[in-house]
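User: what does the whole thing look like in 3D?
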Amino acid sequence: MAHITLIEAVTQALACEMRNDSSVVVLGEDVGVNGGVFRATQGLQQKFGAQRVIDMPLDELTIAGVTVGLAVQGMKPVAEAQFEGFIYPMMEHIACHAARLRTSTRGRMTCPAVFRSPWGGGIRAPEHHSEANEHLFTNIPGLRVVLPSSPGRAYGLLLAAIRDPDPVIFFEPKRIYRQYKEEVPDDGEALPLDVCFVLREGSDATLVTWGAQVKEALEAANVLAAQGIGVEVIDVATLTPLDFDTIRESVKKTGRCVIVHEAPKTAGFGAEIAARLAEESIYDLLAPVERVTGYDVHIPLYRLEMKYLPSVQRIVAAVKRTLTAS
Amino acid sequence: MPIAATFEIEFLQYLDAEGKLVRNDLPAFARDIRQLIELYRLMLYIRAFDTKAIALQRTGKIGTYPPTLGHEAAQVAIGSAMQEDDVFAPTYREHGTQFCRGVKAREVLQHWGGDERGSYFSAPHHDYPCCVPIATQCLLAAGSALAFKLRKEPRVAVAAVGDGGTSKGDFAGALNIAGAMQLPLVTVIINNQWAISMPRNVQTAAKTLAQKGIAAGMECLQVDGNDLIAMRTAMDYAMKRARHGHGGMLIEAITYRLSDHTTVDDAHRYRSDDEVKAAWQREPIKRMKAYLMSLNAWTDKEDESWKAECATKVDAEVNAYLQIKAEPVEAMFDYTYAELPADLATQRAAVLAAERGR
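Assistant: Here's the predicted 3D structure for the full assembly of 684 residues, as structure tokens:
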């Protein structure tokens, strides 16, 4: 059984679904001969041919529009945006067509496409290569936004994304692309796209997070456990449509919630979760909801970027504040 | 200095503004008088519809509407040159082509009358709905063309785009990939000289819009877009080579937007009456009628009786449209995802409860 990294799990899922379904095609910049700049599509063109792993001209706009056109025609395109900082030209096609065609044609046309992109900071990359911009997509109806945080969830959720009949934005936290390996059987088993993952149970506070920040959240939970504080860690790997039930149930038990994300604080997706807690869980809360996030600035270049990203210390401090608030 | 590359753009015209034949190599379809009359009738039907649609907007029976006046030859040529299995990616102003493709007038009215079901299309099921974000349809069509090529299907994707749309990256990107991958994509620029208030000569310094395809390695042609015979000839040529794997083509159809941009626009604010008056001399229906009459294939009497028939047909469509009730309120939720997510189901239930409580 293979022990693989998160990025190898992406490759494994792509290969698996390309074997299962001849309508799956991969397209993007440098995805073919080169196997992708992060090697997510390594070996796929050799295995499946240039007709199914397509090197595209250097234009994100073209990649996005062509992806929608392929999907409408009954293909299952998996497009790659080389970096999330270059995804903006794609947004018009994602918002105006991919996410909307089912509605605007009353179900006549659908767009079963996946838009994959490396995501997030912390790899000492150049400008525009380190963004956390998932919240720009979570407000688009008709779209699913998925952000796995482990090799196993990357594999199972990517399979689910490709099989889903609606368009999916699939962000891959590049900081943990190669952080650790785990056993991921290539069994073709998809994970559900509409449930949160409870990674650790605890009764004193709930940590809600996603993406690379899951690592810091779990480390913070370890630090707090050593101090006798039990923290429940929830990975919201499928941001939209949101499974709020899992979060609500956890907060009912713990009475405290800290939301952790990399993106800027104001109007980040944490704001939606905090608002839902205020609407539906206010009487279960023993302390104000805390958010540990990026600041409302552009992520700095690499000398300062780790000062921007939520740290274990900031998370631990926030959880402790919720414990002393009541 | 040595020349690195040269190019030229040909201009195709069969009928001049008076309907006189200016070439002697009429293609076969144009020698079939019955077919020409059919196409001419379609142009009249489109104009009858357009006139009625504007009246419906003025009386509040539909919302904002983009008129097609003056575009009839280009629209009929595109629609009649396509096969059923091909895919059409329109702007928001291609109702005439859509009629040729099987879209019903009542469906077009339903769309502009604020009802998404108008884009469900009883036929053809694989055509794109009217596309409002400028030129994005060019890339959607390129994607469809890529699917045809990958699946080795003898089908062609056709995109219509305006003169203003040629300024957009989507247009350039679609031509580029169609050229690079030799996709069966026919792109037709409906150059009606005006992008709302911006005239063609201010939109770009390019001498022709057709030449924008040269950079993409595309075969390009400028056509008199008010000349049905020239337009259809160009389309037949482009469709045939695309269908047989010879790649895409860019056609620039020179026409004129005789009406306002939409029913909320007032073109008098930015263009002269003299210019519009001159454009009326070149309009497509007048010259086709003159040509048919010069062949003794059509009479004023037949013209009047067909116009009356068009009015009846359009009225029947309008009446059918007016009978259509609004969708139930929950419809706004039901086509967002294949399956209704839990949160959306909650919102839907709340709306239904509120509606029942009224």
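In plain terms: The domain at 11-326 of chain B is CATH 3.40.50.970 (Rossmann fold). Chain B has two domains: 11-326, 329-358.
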